[in-house]
Amino acid sequence: MSSIDLLSIREQFNKNQILLCFNGPISRGLIEEIGKALKNYLREDNALPSAAMDVFGVYIELTQNIRHYATHKGYSEFEGSATVVVARTVDGHYQVLAGNQVELADGQAVCRDVERLAEMDKAALKQAYKTQLRQPRAENSHSGAGLGLLDVARKSSQPITTKLVDMGDGRGFFSILAVI
Questions:
Q1: DSSP strand pairing (94-103 vs 171-179)
Q2: What is the pLDDT of residues 122-139, one digit of tens each?
Q3: I want to staple 54 with a disulfide (CB 3.0 to 4.6 A). Which of 119, 135, 154, 155 is the partner?
Q4: Phi first, then psi: what are they for 46, rounded to 5°?
């Protein structure tokens, strides 16, 4: 087993102003505990209350989506693992970045949805959110690009972005970035 250079990792975290980083299987309890830690980090970082609420809300939405997706797909603990990073930018914004393994076609569909949302201004996002809110939701619907994604887009100060890396065998690593 190779040695892990923890100092190098720490220096990378400090350089990129990473407040929180998680990689591994994610449960509802873990989402809650990390959420509590995130709230504490934001309070210590003197984040504005509105920004702290938005960062927390985006973190919850993205991690719950990962958990629900993995459960719906019947992924193993390893396949359903999440990678989550919350960082501060030099200009005072917060970045919430989350990623997980997905079926390639599912990842492509969400990327298309995000591209569509990126073309909307705040007023159009608000209207799309209200319209989606009024739509009936099928009881067993597992669409990952509905109300929650619209909410993330509305809370973001910049258009949300995605990246999908083909891992072979019809799967990909999907990541999404929201800047608050």
A1: antiparallel
A2: 999 999 999 988 888 765
A3: 155
A4: 60, 40
